[in-house]
Amino acid sequence: MKIYLQNHFDWCKIMKITFSQIVIILIFTGMSYATTSKGQAVLQQRFDVNIHSTSLGTALKQLEKEASLKFVYPKSLVAGEEDVAIDAKQQTLGEILTAILQPRGIAFAYIGDRIVLSKINQPVNETEQKTPQTDATVPADNNTKTVTGKVTDEENMPLPGVTVKIKGTSLGTQTNIKGEYSLSTPDAGATLIFSFIGFVQQEVLINGQSTINIQLKGTPSNLNEVVVIGYGSQRKSDVTSAVATVQAKDFVSGPVTDAAALLKGKVAGLSVSNPSGDPNAQSQIILRGINTIGGANTAPLVIVDGVPGDLLTVAPEDIAEISVLKDASATAIYGVNGSNGVIIITTKHSNGGITEISYNGSISTQQISRAPKLLTAQDYRNQIAAGTRDSSYDKGSSTDWMKAIENKFPLSELQNLTFRGGNNQTNYLASLDYRFLNGIFQQSNHQQITGRVDINHSMLDGKLKFNLGLLQTNFNDLPFNYYDYEQVFKMNPTAPVKEPNGSYYQEPNNFEYQNPVSDIYNTDQPQSSYRDKYNATITILPVDGLRLVATGSYQKSGYLNQYFANFQNISTIRDAQNGVASTASGQSIDRYLNLSAEYSKAVGDHHFALLAGYEYQDDDTFNSSITNHDFPTDDSSLGYNDIGLGAAQKNGLDVIGSSRYQTNLISYFGRFTYNYKDKYLLLASLRIDGASQLYGAKEPYGKFPSVQAGWRITKEDFMADQHIFDDLKLRIGYGVTGNQPAAGFLGVGLLGYGNYILYNGQWIQTLGPSQNANPDLRWEQKHETNLGLDYVMFKGLINGTIDVYDNKTTGLLYNYQVPSPPNLYPNTEANVGTLENKGIEVAINVNPIRQKDFQWTSGFTFSTNSNKLISLSNDLYKATVPYFVTGNTGDPITTSTNIVQVGQPIGQFFGFKVVGVSADGKWIYQEPNGKDVPYDQFNHAFSDKQVLGNGLPKYYAGWNNTINYKNWDFSVTMRGAFHFQILNSLRMNYENTSVQNYNRLASSQDKVFGTAVLNSNIPEEFNSYYIENGDFWKIDNINVGYTFKQVKSKYIRNIRVYVSTLNTFTITGYKGTDPEVPLTGGSALSPGVESRDAYPSVRTFTLGFSAHF
């Protein structure tokens, strides 16, 4: 068999072209506007095709692969068909398919991105097409009614092969090649049923009509969807691991800070949160719990178009879909990077054949979702009148310090312009994305500009393909100083923002708290950064079934952070420094190379695929910083731009530092896939990783195997007669992944410069041991077993997945005390501990309404996770105690907040338990033995502390709904977290009345435990009173849009306007600003703390507009 697909094109040479020039050239070269539908454009492409002696099914599969098409059809349609033979020169795809399919009585239609095939009961030739086909006849009488009409898809393309039946009878017909039908019915009041594979079935009452034209709406073909997996893709029906995919149409709508926020509440087991409203903050992600205790990265690996990347530089509008690989059998092929899961982002590409221009834009504003209530100026004066505050604290003004630092009406904007075009051989996509996120606080914003170009070229009949990707991102930010938010809570509400002379008010001789507005405008701290990324992929198909791929990537990134506190800044006044300036800069170069070969072969009902590959990554990072003070001028631009002007440098008081580190990773991987009759599925993989972090160890290379198996139960004969399950698949997987430690060169002993000694009258810095050698170090390894069930029921009405997992991370890295001597250093890193995670994940998708003008889809996700630290010691290394404390309350309490203990879960709060207060407002404690002890008799010793709760949610749930009615669309995303606690640091610090010159929360006047107001002589303290139930349910994202589909312009395809909200409404008993608090902030081992100084969460309102040309 030979199949040749050819297009003709012209080359033009472009030399010494910059990134910007490439964008301009691609946009304006050969631009034309689409005046036909996408389906028509695809079917009108011309090819050279030469097919000899092959079955129809094989020919269709080869056409799919070579021409980037997707056919949808029942297997029975091509079973037993004789060999295909065709020799076509520069014929359209529609003509080629007609020549192959029409003689076999098979109709085709282009729907979405696929071509749907269906059987026509009686083949129709060119002459017969003039008369609509009728399968059923009815004896003619006076009551007989003939109904004719035409059936089309959503793009008004004719649908041949649609079944048209009279409801409740066996009478029916099918549409011809033009989508036309004619049917006689004895009942003018009967109902017609229109059904076709891949479309929503419709029922229409005849009601005396003689002509009924119908437009059918396509439904997703779940089983034939292609799912992206590690280094490849599979049909959804063939996937045997826990993989979830979210399409662009289902993303969270609105101005998100990064791509992760698009997935909120969409994937079972994946927690995505934005606990801060800071425009410069990024999403926090946890997938299937915490898998390490040693400070290693807890975020999933991010892959963008096959290359390691990040969630910040890819514009959300450029993303086509996101796949989440959850279990170790799916992520093991990524080795040491796959322990926390893998997020694979596929960006939008040009399909060729049509030139398109699309624009998306929006403006947004924000408000604090739930602002804390502070004492007002009148409350202050009431306390002065009551004698609980000194009269000197009344400064004569009334200031709401929260409003004083707020932006009155913060506006953010997003703009995205995308161009795509070319033909089937050479096509391109170019996009420009601009986003400006304005914070709710003054001088707090994020600006990002991203340019992207993607070019594809195919030659030698599709056997040689090239892809070139260019991505350039620039950031300009004004970060908010969280210290200013702290001052909002402390500042006297009777104090003015400014003095009568126009200068900022400051409490004389009191530097414990300061005017936050003054600090904002007397500090200049711009930050800028960039990331330039270049990808290239070459794909070679030398023989049938063999695919060779080479991918390379080069990324250069850098940053410049500048700071200047002028002469009026209170900190420079306090320290008598006459201005303080600093600058920090750095640059990183990342290189990536992947070489792979994949061979697939079908022998009868046996389908095999074998993948082998090599991967190399390295990183070279350099950082430097300098701080200086005592400047002769108050000009900030001269401060950080000419930092040598500071006199402190001349006096040797400036601070200078620099660092450089390099890492590399060398990997080998392979995968074997087997499929028997689409019924029995098997996949096995192996990855071998070696990295610089374990330089000097005996086993620097880690081995990470996996095996998966699947059984499509509905393919068995005993399921043939059931009508409940369209597809039912049982799968099981086991895999091993690694965890990269945060530090490098852990296997060797290290020396470092430290203390000084006096030698010959001079202080000389000494060089001493800083790390013991441990050649037995190895990778932390996560061993995971996953059992899953995928199902589709009632003709696609319901589909979903159920997964149960159990994983253990062994060889946890922990720092152990060792004797010195014989060791040179008193601590050694060793692989000893074991951590366990277990959970259940459920996803259910329902399509309750599937009518022509009204569709409703609903999706529900639910997951559980529980963890436990199994051990911290072995025969060689013993932990001093079977626990360690972590987390910190910060000043002025300065104590740990959490404990990590063998036999207990991660995330436990650990402190003093209180059960009430005395009549004079003093705490009553409960000791671990259950005994109640009054404040004055309590020891406040470590042994008096106990577990007070846990900051990690045990249950997560999400509920997503989308409704389409004619041109209207409505969607709402809801999600929640349950069975966890939160440390409310705001209450802990600002309900206390012991510091009289601080402002406080209004709740500080409330009775504690309903008994008495807290005694003013009791200092701030971390105890159980400030540990609250964190359960919440959020109506998060609401989106309402209207699409103008029939625009009276030959250039405009459609226009959509929409309004949306983010973080709309929260149902919770938590008293803080937002129960969605950091789970990985600072340390993944001390989750669930709402920091007193944290930028508050926000509610966002958006007006958006999009157009396609």
From TrEMBL:
Entry GO terms, CC: cell outer membrane
Ranges annotated as biased composition (Polar residues): 126-149
SUPFAM superfamilies (UniProt xref): Carboxypeptidase regulatory domain-like, Porins
Membrane topology according to the record: Multi-pass membrane protein
Major localisation: membrane
Stretch list, region Disordered: 126-154
Listed InterPro entries: Beta-barrel_TonB, CarboxyPept-like_regulatory, Plug_dom, Plug_dom_sf, TonB-dep_OMP_SusC/RagA, TonB-dep_OMP_SusC/RagA_CS, TonB-dep_rcpt-like
A UniProt-annotated Pfam family: Plug
Ranges for domain TonB-dependent receptor-like beta-barrel: 471-1050
Signal peptide: none
Keyword terms, alphabetized: Cell outer membrane, Membrane, TonB box, Transmembrane, Transmembrane beta strand, Transport
Recorded family membership: Belongs to the TonB-dependent receptor family.
Protein name: TonB-linked outer membrane protein, SusC/RagA family
